[in-house]
Specification:
It contains seven helices and ten strands. It is of the alpha+beta class and 314 residues long. A hairpin with a 4-residue loop joins β6 (125-131) and β7 (136-141). It is elongated, with a radius of gyration of 22 Å. The longest helix is centred in the last third of the chain and has 20 residues, at 227-246. α1 packs parallel to α7 and α6 packs across α7 (227-246). The strands form three sheets. It has a four-stranded antiparallel sheet with strand order 1-6-7-5. Strands 2-3-4-8 form a four-stranded antiparallel sheet. The chain binds a DNA duplex (12 and 12 nucleotides) through α6.
DNA sequence: TAAATCCTGTCA
DNA sequence: TGACAGGATTTA
């Protein structure tokens, strides 16, 4: 569900309620959501007493920077860090300022909400973070694909996070960066846009919308674009993502932001979910749905024509 | 490069 | 009842 614009919207709507707050209690209802090989008890112990110092977004990950005064000691007397990974040497002072990063990935159906303590739970609430003012940050996730991970400077970040590609809305992401992302790729454009190692944050909805706005067929070969096409793809990528953030993301079914609001970019979608409808851009053809890279893919055969293979050209 | 996998819910 | 859903990883 949540792609870059939704994750950014969640971050912006959650952060004012948690910025500077200290975590007083962490309740893990379903241990599946804790990733990185950390058990629920250590996960909770690491977070308790930590303060939300900063937030940012990387691809579809929410990143919270936390500060805490001391290394917590678990019931077994050991510092609560990644199991077996470089725990404090004997005699090493355990009370040092400590910086942590909390990564949250919402995957398909994850939701974050900041609520007052008595507020009714959303269904499938798996994690609760109580803050020093009583507010609760809650995580609900129907399909339970979402994950919370802690990076404490010793544990290595998960591969998917380490290998994230360019941030498409950063200033440095210029036409040349888009050209670089495409270079040497024999696969299809749709697959490339979904590849988080090339460009981070684009998912199935925005991939389709970006390609439609650029007038490029999802099955075009990625290394086969001319300069004008690369520029169109670059511009569409930035425009679509920025507009979607401006409208609070896209709600097809489940997605809501940190305040429970739905995303209005759903009304701006031109091809996603419009199979069989006349293309709103050209009015000349009906939107088609095919499967590309294993994902349902929507496009207008008139706006996004596929060049004929060379051997069949006259 | 594709398929299977992790889950649950919804819709035809 | 089966197909499908906005994601990512692992396996073939």
């Amino acid at each position: 569900m949540p792609e870059l614009p939704e994750v950014e919207t969640v971050r912006r709507t959650i952060w004012p309620a948690i910025a500077g707050r200290t975590i007083s209690e962490v309740i893990v209802e379903h241990p599946d959501v804790v990733g990185g090989g950390l058990d629920a008890a250590r996960f909770a112990a690491l977070l308790c007493g930590a303060r939300f110092a900063a937030s940012r977004r990387r691809g579809k990950y929410l990143v919270f920077e936390l500060e805490r005064e001391v290394v917590p000691v678990g019931a077994d007397g050991n510092p609560c860090t990644q199991a077996g990974e470089g725990a404090s040497a004997p005699g090493e002072p355990a009370a040092l300022p400590m910086r942590l990063e909390l990564l949250v990935h919402l995957r398909m159906t994850g939701k974050l909400a900041c609520v007052e303590p008595g507020c009714a739970d959303l269904p499938h609430t798996h994690l609760r973070v109580r803050l020093d003012n009583g507010t609760e940050l809650r995580f609900a996730d129907t399909r339970r694909f979402g994950r919370w991970l802690i990076l404490d400077g010793r544990a290595e970040a998960p591969q998917g996070y380490r290998e994230l590609g360019a941030e498409p809305l950063e200033e440095g992401f210029d036409v040349e960066a888009m050209r670089g992302a495409l270079a040497g790729r024999y696969g299809k454009l749709k697959a490339l846009l979904l590849d988080q190692r090339r460009i981070a944050g684009i998912g199935n909805i925005y991939a389709d919308e970006i390609l439609h706005r650029a007038g490029l067929h999802p099955e075009r070969r990625a290394d086969d674009l001319d300069s004008g096409e690369i520029e169109r793809l670059w511009r569409s990528t930035r425009d679509v993502l920025r507009e979607a953030i401006g409208k609070g993301g896209t709600t097809i079914r489940d997605y809501v932001d940190g305040r429970g609001r739905r995303g209005d970019f759903v009304y701006s979608l031109r091809v996603y979910g419009r199979t069989g409808e006349l293309c709103v851009t050209c009015g000349r053809a009906a939107v088609e749905r095919v499967v590309v890279a294993g994902r349902s893919t929507h496009f207008c055969p008139a706006c996004q024509s596929l060049p004929e293979p060379a051997e069949s050209r006259p």
